[in-house]
Design a protein that fits this description.
mainly alpha, single chain
Length: about 120
């Protein structure tokens, strides 16, 4: 498999994985979400290693970094991956915020009777 074909394959896999990750987050299937993280990290490492090679100006005999980075379709796919990753990150942050708020409410809820229906009813009698 050529470097360009391998890059297409791995970026396509990353796109699909990010989409799957989003679906798992929406469905709150966190165990499965955790399971896909290892594969996602492997794909991200592959992409990062190619970017690092180009930035350092190092090119091995069997890696054609220039061809990979100058391919317009690959660039567009990488941008879509970045956008999907950001979307997933936003969803994770929202879920964490909701969980924190729920925990905060549970911790302080027992101490503050003024926010309960029972308290409102007693005040009107």
């Amino acid at each position: 498999m050529s470097d360009l074909q391998e890059a297409f394959f791995k970026i396509t896999a990353l796109e699909e994985l990010l989409e799957r990750e989003f679906e798992l987050l929406k469905a709150q299937e966190f165990a499965e979400f955790e399971a896909v993280q290892e594969r996602k990290n492997q794909l991200l490492e592959f992409i990062a290693s190619h970017q690092q090679l180009d930035q350092e100006g190092i090119e091995s005999n069997n890696i054609n970094v220039e061809a990979i980075l100058n391919n317009e379709e690959l660039s567009e796919r990488l941008q879509r991956c970045r956008d999907r990753q950001q979307r997933n990150e936003i969803l994770v942050r929202q879920k964490l915020s909701s969980i924190r708020e729920a925990l905060k409410t549970l911790k302080t809820g027992g101490d503050q009777r003024s926010n309960t229906y029972e308290h409102l009813g007693k005040g009107r009698r």
